[in-house]
Amino acid sequence: MNRREFISWVGVGSAASSLPGMITACSQTNSQQSTTPVRADGFQEVGTVAELDKNGQILNEKLAAGKVLVIRDPKDTSKLAALNPTCTHRGCTVSWNQDQSSFVCPCHGSKFNSDGKVVNGPADKPLPTYTAKLEGDTVLVKAG
């Protein structure tokens, strides 16, 4: 083995031995990004009523169970609709379109109604839904 090969092998070995440490560091960083804690009743704060009314929706990507998108139920605005906004077709993030009264996927045009059921494909599975409620000025979601 010549000197160049030896140095190459030492470099590969040191990179390989540091990989587990880097993976652990990344995992700890991601777990620290969770937002408010889950309460004893299973609900978690995802935003405020002011934010919901201003934007027409709240997208929270740090819920304990993953992403959640909350809107006021178009059939009864005193109620909320909450679902996982990951399109079941190819994983793009849907958003609420007030004019169409549906969640619309920007990638391939799938549409879902306010309770997550498919209105228009290519998606063929509904979006997972969550229980949501208002408590004072806080929007809460119970995932699971």
UniProtKB/TrEMBL annotation:
InterPro entries: Rieske_2Fe-2S, Rieske_2Fe-2S_sf, Rieske_Fe-S_prot, Rieske_Fe-S_prot_C. GO terms for cellular component: membrane. GO terms for molecular function: 2 iron, 2 sulfur cluster binding; metal ion binding; monooxygenase activity; oxidoreductase activity, acting on paired donors, with incorporation or reduction of molecular oxygen. Keywords: 2Fe-2S, Disulfide bond, Iron, Iron-sulfur, Metal-binding, Thylakoid. The keyword Magnesium does not apply. Residues 44-141 form the Rieske domain. It comes from the Bacteria. Its cofactor is [2Fe-2S] cluster. This is Rieske domain-containing protein.
